[in-house]
Write a structure and sequence with these properties.
There is one protein chain. This protein has one helix at residues 2-24, and strands at 37-38, 45-51, 58-62, 93-99, 103-111, 118-119, 127-129, 135-141. The chain is of the alpha+beta class and 142 residues long. The strands form 2 sheets. Strands 3, 5, 6, 7 and 8 form a 5-stranded antiparallel beta sheet that branches. It has a 3-stranded antiparallel beta sheet with strand order 1-2-4, with no helix packed on it.
């Protein structure tokens, strides 16, 4: 009888752990944001959005020439000014609009200059392995 109650107790503790850790799982249960898309602001304008309410800085990093993965590929160091996103209304939704010609591009979001992680776009189903244990998001522009 004691072994059965011990097993039941263990199951209860494990279930409670799942419920408690589920609170941190809310990062996945974000508001559905639009994938990168063309806007009419200027020629070849593309709008990117990313939700990170806890962030102090977010940068859009990608493989296009003007970005070079926020300078890490082209200059060998992270450049805080490249791909700097804005959250003017402080709602946790970061935005940037930039000019991208038609093509296929890889991108990620760098939270707090990389110390908060490099995250793929959770709202974009197009992605590929980044060879570092994560994913790069993909945008194909026509």
């Amino acid at each position: 009888m004691l072994k059965i109650s011990g097993i039941v107790f263990l199951a209860f503790i494990l279930a409670a752990g799942v419920v408690i850790s589920g609170c941190s799982y809310s990062k996945v249960l974000r508001n559905r944001l639009p994938t990168p898309h063309r806007v009419d602001d200027f020629e070849n304008a593309v709008k990117f959005v990313y939700e990170a309410p806890q962030a102090r800085n977010v940068n859009l990093c990608g493989n296009w020439i003007e970005n070079g993965w926020c300078g890490t590929q082209t200059a060998g160091r992270f450049d805080h000014t490249i791909g700097k996103m804005q959250d003017d209304d402080q709602d946790g939704i970061w935005e940037i609009i930039l000019s991208l010609k038609p093509g296929r591009y890889l991108y990620k979001f760098s939270v707090d200059w990389g110390t908060g992680g490099w995250e793929h776009d959770q709202n974009n189903p197009l992605n590929e392995d980044d060879s570092y244990g994560g994913f790069n998001s993909i945008i194909i522009l026509h």
